[in-house]
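Why do we care about 3D structure at all? Because function follows from shape, and shape follows, mostly, from sequence. That is the central idea of this module. The next example makes it concrete: a single protein chain, its amino acid sequence, and then its structure expressed as tokens.
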Amino acid sequence: MPSSATYRSVRPDLREDRQAAVRVLLEPDGLRALIVTHLPNIRYLTGFTGSSGAAIVLPDHVVLVTDFRYETQAADEVGSAARVEIVRTDQWKRVRKVLNDAPCISEVGFEAESVSVATAQRLSDGDWSVAARPVRGPVEQLRASKHPSEVESIRQAACLAAEAFEEVTCAIRPGVPELTIAAELERALRLRGSEWHPFQTIVASGPRSALPHARTGNRELRPGDFVLLDFGAQVDGYCADLTRTVVLGTADERQRTVYEIVRSSQADARSHVHAGMTGADADALARSPIAARGFGDAFGHSLGHGLGLEVHEAPRLGRTNDKPLPADAVVTIEPGVYFAGWGGVRIEDDIHLAAEGARLLSDGQTELMEL
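And the structure:
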């Protein structure tokens, strides 16, 4: 079994460039400062991986405010990318002081998607000399297009996840509870170097495979079951997301038909998706052939989503997204069909929307497995 060192690489320090790019994105809104509170965005800009903090992007530097638990960690992780200020009482008082002391800052933006109503009210109280207003997604906009080093981290995570799945297929047997399969899979992921599980591992068998986001339970696997496994891995903070559906024993005619419809639509979509097409057009690559076979109503979710420091991030590949997919995004391609009381099939791989075309990052081993 490979050690965790197999899935690590030296990544270039992009933080200064990212901070400069955020400042450029703020200019059309007339802003020269931004309070960043969404933790993946803080990590993206400063390298800090703690569970509490705020980063203030100012015209010529960045300040990270966090608490005493991270005094050593923040200094080690952030280095020269930001000035670290440690507080022992009220984080927001320190944020306010940083902004009040900053020259020529009359207004600051804050992340509309991650700030609570209570915090937004606090940002607008009378003690602030700087006005605050919400902005939508400047950091997320940058994160949607991946640097080659980020793509490589996701590729490594996807390879790790595929190897872990292959290792545990021998445990997928009649009489074994779903929770046991999930535990074995998560164990294999961690031993192979996954830093954490980007989401709760899903193992859904038999009729429960018709639940797209089933909660893994105590149901014991039975001969003839579809078994749907949705799992991920994390390398250098970057996430991979795979789904495989197998049959326990020999597949019947209906299972083969349904599986092949999903498999062929997924193969077409991952081959033809490209940067510049809209999220809706990407979704149609898989949805149209499924609908043509009469199963359109059974495919109720979107085709896919972006991957990065979060397992669900921009862009979205769905029927309502009329925006172009950005170049160098990494996305999932995961069509599925589900029939209540019978079962369902989903097949998911990770794709890099490179300039030369779609590049498969995961193993793409999607032929029907009968275990």
